[in-house]
Write the structure tokens for this entry.
Amino acid sequence: MIIVLKNHTSEQEVNELMSWLSRFNVSTNLVQGVHSNIIGLIGDTTHVDIEAVQAKECVESVQRVQEPYKNANRKFHPDDTVIDVRGRIIGGGKTQVMAGPCSVETEEQIITTAIAVKQAGATMLRGGAFKPRTSPYSFQGLGKEGIDLLLQARKVTGLPIVTEIMDVSDLDLFADIDVVQVGARNMQNFTLLKELGRCDKPVLLKRGLSGTLQELLMSAEYIMSEGNQKVILCERGIRTFEPAMRNTLDLAAVPLLKQKTHLPIAVDPSHATGIVSLIEPCALGAVAVGADALEIEVHNDPKNAWSDGAQQLTPPKFAEVMKKIKALAEFMGKPVDDAQ
């Protein structure tokens, strides 16, 4: 249930209303927006009399919410959520570009690539230290060593780091990581999500291979219900009957999610297609439909990459793509963040 308050409602009136609502054994959440303030009720609201609430002097309107996700629901939080990552603002009218290799391989590889993507205009560095692979015989990542190399790259470039966690037992290793990524295969790892919800750290939550949008939002709800409101949703392609690409990029999900949730939306065209020639048009398409961030794989030597070389841009090609991304983002009114 959502209660919209009248303008100029006093703090005392709000406190009295919330105290009165507490008798119904529901949680109350006051959200102060730009245009209006609302109180969201979470829990069993079947015993709350809408007419009695509506009769309160400070109440403008009341409506029930049918969707099972509450914290992530735009009805509860009309204004867009803005997440600050070391000065890079995600969801605040700027476009962020997270770029870097699929896997961290060597110190030379990650430092060289990090410098190159920053020079091209990337605002954050992505790189895999832990890698969930379909085959147990494929390279699984360097683990802690990979995280240490990412921290070195951040020291050299100043770029915030985005990297994926696979198991809750590794959480301590992510203490200095700026954005913790939850991969598609872990979208419904609820134990991991709840633990990340207890951390004061931004979480990039990727849509599962066959996940519906409601399932994605419910996974975000797991994180947010534990107190962490810093969630970034990521569309990275879903599995369909089409075999020509690695996945099918669902760009329509971006504007539809914008209607349903206040959380910022990222798009990963690299995993969505798995084909290097498709990354540029899909990245531009993501900007056009309103994505707040892009996650693009870039490798200094993709032909010899230890994983997913076929979907990683070279630094020169990434620089070309970034010029177009910047131009389109500027036209769309969401320029690429120039914080360096």
Q: What stands out?
A: Residues 4 and 38 are 4 Å apart (CA to CA). The mean pLDDT is 93. The longest helix spans residues 315-331. The two ends are 43 Å apart (CA to CA).
